[in-house]
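Structure in, sequence out. Go:
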């Protein structure tokens, strides 16, 4: 089974190749208690989507795209993630959940992005 991290890395490669302005949100992964406290104090918040795309989608009037990425099989959207997706939608973002890199790239193309792989 392909990991969520490797799926995200494939999407990141395509976004970079396509010169789309984005950033990753460092919410995942193991941290010791001190590191977790420092991240929380610096503003890292549980549930923020994995990738934030700042270019507005060509086929939708929106601020940008918030992408929560899951493995193709397995993985679920947590209540915190669902809340963030809803809040971002309410503020003019397109907030989507994708199952794997291929699904993420398909959804971005449907929004009008010319994503190169």
């Amino acid at each position: 089974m392909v990991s969520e991290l490797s799926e995200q890395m494939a999407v990141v490669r395509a976004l970079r190749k396509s010169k789309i302005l984005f950033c990753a949100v460092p919410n995942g992964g193991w941290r010791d208690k001190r590191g977790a406290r420092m991240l929380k104090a610096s503003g890292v918040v549980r549930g923020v989507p994995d990738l934030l795309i700042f270019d507005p989608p060509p086929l939708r009037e929106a601020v940008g795209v918030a992408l929560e990425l899951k493995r193709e099989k397995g993985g679920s959207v947590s209540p915190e993630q669902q809340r963030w997706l809803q809040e971002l939608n309410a503020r003019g973002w397109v907030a989507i959940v994708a199952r794997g890199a291929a699904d993420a790239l398909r959804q971005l193309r449907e929004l009008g992005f010319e994503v190169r792989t």
